[in-house]
Design goal:
Number of domains: 2
Oligomer: single chain
Helix content: 25-40%
CATH superfamily of the largest domain: Zn peptidases
Largest sheet: 6 strands, mixed
Strand order of the largest sheet: 1-2-6-3-7-19
Shape: globular
Distance between the termini: 29 Å
CATH architecture of the largest domain: 3-Layer(aba) Sandwich
CATH topology of the largest domain: Aminopeptidase
Radius of gyration: 23 Å
């Protein structure tokens, strides 16, 4: 199997370049129909029964291989990508999929087309070498992950019977700064909102600031009530449902390999937040919720000066949530907090409300992924009890009783959502081998439900 993949690596790299050269920017509705059809055609050419399932947004592309097999493994991916801005910072065109120094550069190559194509290539290799897959394989490839998977719950509600599987390989995966692969057993949840503060009905000369309230200041004062400098979130009730750490959680954290020095060096930093290190650092990364300002916008920020009193100020903030926090409840608590602090006039626009999700390390799928990671990469992986990131894992998997584990072909410097997004070609080929090994190993293990 591994030799077959090595012999066909150039073919698999070409497949990846082809799909990366097709723009699919969900936020701008650019290339979405074309990419959905391209993904469906690739799966059909590989022998899958395929369909595009319409939603109130972009379609979900579904494919099934070896339908007659009783045991099943689900792959979740997405075909949409982030906007490529700022384009001027790219060293090659964002959709050219150029190869330089052993890396392929393209918007979406790490997030998420590299993982999607590695999984499809693994199916291709397995069927050619063994004649058939060892279990039923299902693909769910959505087109709205980068805009919050707005309609994935609608899809999941309508197709629960089809989605049922013994396990799911989730969309992402990376290597640490020291080259060690990560295996993630869940994701944090999220409450992502935009706060909007309005003043006069037009921008004014800044001389009017003597008598006209500045919405930028008002928004800053509102934001300052959310969190203290020691990172304590001040929203009443915010921490009430945070699940306490178990002995097993602490054991996993103690054994979790996290290269602090390599990470700081890669980022050009001297220390982590609050000077954390060791177990407290890992606990905060994995098991503690966050409150983060993602963006601020108001008034004039161009070159030179412009004396202006802005009419509106906006801030986008996200809260990363841990078990057992509910994003809808956190949204309500935030509204109540602002009202009680005198900011009832500030609008709240929700963008993403996603539950945290987690799979236990003793689950057969988790065991299978961990064992095959050691087999393919020749080293112990970093086991992440939950990824610090977020995705719609709960909607598609845990609420339906499906365990989910994340592995993939990205790296610490893949620049997801940033200019010069990339993956290493060798990581891509290793990722293909790993998926083939997971299918082979998981098919032999006991039922995970």
């Amino acid at each position: 199997m591994l030799e077959f993949i090595d012999r066909h690596r150039d073919q698999y790299i070409t497949w990846l370049q082809d799909i990366c050269r097709q723009p699919s920017v969900a936020a701008q509705n650019r290339g979405m129909t074309e990419t959905a059809s391209l993904v469906e055609n690739i799966m059909r050419d590989l022998g899958a029964e395929t369909k595009q399932v319409e939603t109130s947004g972009y379609p979900v592309v579904c494919g099934t291989f070896q339908k007659e097999k009783k045991k099943s493994l689900l792959f979740y991916n997405h075909y949409d990508v982030q906007p490529e801005d700022p384009i001027e910072l790219w060293e090659s065109p964002p959709f050219a999929a150029e190869i330089r120094d052993g890396r392929i550069y393209a918007r979406g190559v790490a997030d998420n087309k590299g993982n999607l194509m590695a999984r499809l290539a693994a199916v291709h290799a397995y069927r050619h070498v063994r004649g058939e897959l060892p279990l039923q394989v299902k693909f769910v490839v959505e087109g709205e992950e980068e805009i919050g998977s707005v309609h994935l719950e609608e899809f999941a509600d309508r197709h629960q019977d089809w989605l049922q599987a013994d396990g799911c390989i989730w969309e992402f995966g990376y290597k640490n700064a020291d080259g060690r692969p990560q295996v993630s057993l869940g994701v944090k949840g999220m409450c992502y909102v935009e706060l909007v503060c309005r003043g006069a009905n037009t921008d004014l000369h800044s001389a009017n600031a003597a008598i006209i309230e500045n919405p930028a200041w008002r928004l800053i004062w509102a934001l300052s009530t959310l969190k203290t400098p020691d990172e304590k979130i001040q929203i009443a009730g915010f921490y009430d449902k945070v699940a306490p750490l178990t002995a097993e959680d602490i054991n996993v954290l103690e054994n979790m390999i996290y290269s602090e020095e390599s990470t700081l060096a890669k980022l050009g930093l001297r220390s982590f937040l609050l000077n954390l290190t060791g177990l407290p650092l890992k606990e905060k990364l994995i098991f503690q919720p966050t409150c983060t300002i993602c963006g601020l916008e108001s008034g004039y920020t161009g070159e030179g000066s412009k004396t202006v009193l802005p009419s509106v100020a906006r801030a986008k903030i996200d809260f990363r949530l841990v078990p057992n926090q509910d994003p809808h409840e956190i949204h309500s608590l935030l509204r109540k907090h602002l009202d009680q602090h005198g900011f009832s006039d500030i609008e709240m626009i929700p963008y993403a409300l996603e539950h945290p999700a987690r799979t236990e390390i003793v689950n057969p799928l988790a065991v299978s992924v961990l064992e095959t990671t050691k087999q393919i990469y020749g080293m112990e992986p970093t086991v992440m009890p939950m990824s610090p990131g977020t995705g719609p894992m709960y909607v598609l998997c845990q609420r339906l009783g499906i365990p989910a584990v994340s592995v993939g072909v990205g790296n610490f410097a893949s620049n997801n959502h940033a200019p010069n997004e990339n993956i290493l070609l060798e990581d891509y080929v290793q990722g293909i081998k790993h998926i083939a090994a997971i299918m082979d190993d998981f098919a032999k293990r006991g039922n995970s439900q």
